[in-house]
Amino acid sequence: MVALPVLQPRPAPATPPRSVRLSLTDRCDLACVYCRPDKRDGYLEDRLEIDAWKTMAEGLVRAGVRRVRLTGGEPLLHPAVVEVVAFLGALGLDDLALTTNATRLARHARALRDAGLMRINVSLDTLDPARFRRMTRGGRLDVVLRGVDAALAAGFDEIKLNAVVVRGENDGELEDIVRWSWERGIVPRFLEVMHIGEGAKLKDRVVRASEMRARLAHLLHGGEALAEADRGPAKYLFARRGDGRKVGFITGTSDTYCKGCDRLRVAADGTLRPCLATNDGLAAGHIARRGDPAKIAGAVDDAWRLKPDGDVWKGCTEPDAASVSMRGIGG
Ligand code: SAM
């Protein structure tokens, strides 16, 4: 077990983890400016094999997990992603979702839907090809847009768009992104740059959700933005035109949301990580490889005792967060 002084084992939180993010791989084909310095920043050497992932998944469900999201790195780079989704789809989960940069979504969307994937989030910060290339260090917007079209055609229960807003880069595009998303039945969400990894170098370029809301005030009802039950930290405002469309805001920096967090992460090497904002965790890859889900459930219980106390812990704004790799932990 690797534990920084701040996260000492303590009695497990009253509720077990209900929601888990599996980082199928830490590899990614993009290098977004707020996430990693370049594409040569190093990868894990030890990644779980498919059978170990299956044991991991069964153990998590035994431990009480009801909602799973596949992420990474870029989950669609994993050669067995559809097989993993099919396995998870047969476990009777309440929710099965995936977060992707969509560079490979055109070729996988239909198979993922058929394998039981319910919902998909596409990370897309801009609709401008040159800006997209700059923000992702070389990515092609046309490829991603084809992926989005394929996801729309596959008929997922829900598609969300996640855009990280960087001052001086895409902060003038909020309205265009909202209108583009709404036209397609996609739910747009805007994220503050979190002070995690490379994001910690962009503190002067954070756009707070309050400013984003002000920029979109002519489109959205005012009042308190509301979270959705069992759907993470995003808070939503509805369209003024009253058609049920909405916009989400994720305020990792201006308003941390650790209290009540029921989320556990599993890194690509099988490390159980109780918080996005620290490198603390409990190595469980060797347990998963032994093929015993009951032992994984026990390890989940141990890892959950490392969960920071949300009353005092300030998540992504804690100084330690700068040393975390979002790509490695499974953002
Ligand atoms: N490759 C997949 C993707 O692009 O969606 C999944 C992994 S990516 C790390 C998950 C999400 O984390 C993306 O929406 C990305 O924009 C976001 N992200 C990464 N670093 C961030 C940071 N410093 N602040 C806010 N969001 C960040």
List keywords for this structure.
about 325 residues; 12-stranded mixed sheet; about 30% helix; globular; disordered N terminus; binds S-adenosylmethionine
Protein architecture, described:
This protein has one domain (19-329): Aldolase class I (TIM Barrel, Alpha-Beta Barrel). The protein is 28% helix and 18% strand. It is built from ten helices and twelve strands. It has a twelve-stranded mixed sheet with strand order 7-8-9-6-5-4-3-2-1-10-11-12. Helix 2 runs parallel beside helix 3. The two termini are 21 Å apart. 48% of the residues are buried. The structure holds S-adenosylmethionine.
Strand order of the largest sheet: 7-8-9-6-5-4-3-2-1-10-11-12
Shape: globular
Helix-strand topology string? EHEHEHEHHEHEHEEEEEEHHH
**Helix/strand/pairing class, anyone?**
alpha/beta
Query: Roughly what fraction of the amino acids lie in strands?
Result: 15-25%
Bound molecules: S-adenosylmethionine
Q: What's the level 1 CATH class?
A: Alpha Beta
